[in-house]
Amino acid sequence: AKKRLERFRKIVGADGLVLETSDVDALLPTVRSRCQEMVLRPLSHARLAASLREHAGLPADDTLALARLAHGRYGLAMRMHADPSLAVLRQSATEEARRLARAGRNERFDVADRLGSAWYRERESVLATVDLWRDWWREVLLATSGLEASPEAVEYAAGLTPADAVRALRAVQTAREHLLGNTSAPLALEVMMLDLPMLS
What we know:
By secondary structure, this protein is an all-alpha fold. Helix content is 68%, strand content 0%. The radius of gyration is 19 Å and the shape is globular.
C-alpha cells in the first residue's frame, strides 16, 4: 500500500488529483481522456495477512481469514475487522451463491423474486448481495484456473471448469448492469438465474 501511494505521489505531484472509481466506463470520455489510468489489483492473501499483522496488530489466524474474505482488499479487510457483521454478510451471500449453482429453477426464481421485490426498497442491500456473488464466482474462477484462491473456493471448484465460472460471472455482471440501468429488477434477476450454470 505504501509503495502504491508513493507511486501515485510521483505521478500526480503536489498539485495532482487522484480520481478513484470501480467502473471506468461510468466516467465521461472527456474525463477519461485527461487521466492516466492505473489499475489497482488485490494483494495476495499472504501479503494482505502480513500487512494486517504489521499495521493493525491482528493475530495471524484472524488476518488470514480476513484476507480471504476480503479477496486481497486491504480497506475491506479493515472494515470487516471493525464491523464483524460485514464478514457475516459476506459469508451468508457466499453460501447462497454456492447453493444457487446447484438449485433447481423454482428455488432460483424464489430468490430472484425476493431480491427483485427488495430492490425497490433496499437497493444498496441487493446490490451488495449481487456484488458478493460476483466476488465468489471470481474466486471460483481463480480456483478453476489453478491460481491462489480461498480453500472454500478450491474445494467447491472441484469438477468445475473455468468456462463454468466465466459463465456465472457474466450472468451476475450482466444482471448488475441491468439493475443499474433501470431494467425491471425481477426480470433482470430471473434472466441471471437462467444463465447461471446448472451444476449437479
